[in-house]
Amino acid sequence: MFATVVTVLTVLSSGYFTVSGLLAPGGLVPGGDAAAPRVFAAYMAARSIVLLGGLALFAALRAWRPLTLVLALNAGVQLVDTVIGVTRHELAQSLGPAFFALLLGAAAWTLLPRRGRLAGT
Fold first, then answer.
1. Cα 108 to the center of its chain, rounded Å
2. What is the 8-class DSSP label of residue 41?
3. Which candidate in 68, 75, 77, 121 could, as Cys together with 105 as Cys, close a disulfide (CB 3.0–4.6 Å)?
4. What are the DSSP E strand ranges found in 15-63?
């Protein structure tokens, strides 16, 4: 249940930023309305749509093993986003992704088989 709630929250929040970045990148980043940032936003959105689609699909199918992997991959993406926010000295862009990285990692952890969590098997 926890993993499903985290999945839905991730799809909604990241989906919002994906659509916003495609429709109005200047609303997210100053100067984003120029041609190069719009193309870059489209490429980033394509990757985000695949990850978010995987989350939604695997959660809907109750395919827990693949969902665990995609949750962990999304946690990795959020960790990288956290590093970007920290290097740019932007508090909100650091704390938001860090919070989601923790949630996504915890959700993936809850889906791991009990005996393999600490033993690595």
1. 13
2. H
3. 75
4. none
Sign of the Cα torsion 92, 7, 66, 51 reads: negative
pLDDT for residue 40: 84
Residue 69 and residue 111: Cα distance in Å, rounded? 10
* DSSP state at residue 112: S
Q: How far apart are CA 58 and CA 35, in angstroms?
A: 35
List the one residue out of 97, 53, 50 whose CA is nearest residue 76: 97
Residue with tokens 């969902």: 67
**Alpha-carbon distance 71 to 68, whole Å?**
5
Quick one: which of 5, 13, 26 has its CA closest to 77? Answer: 13
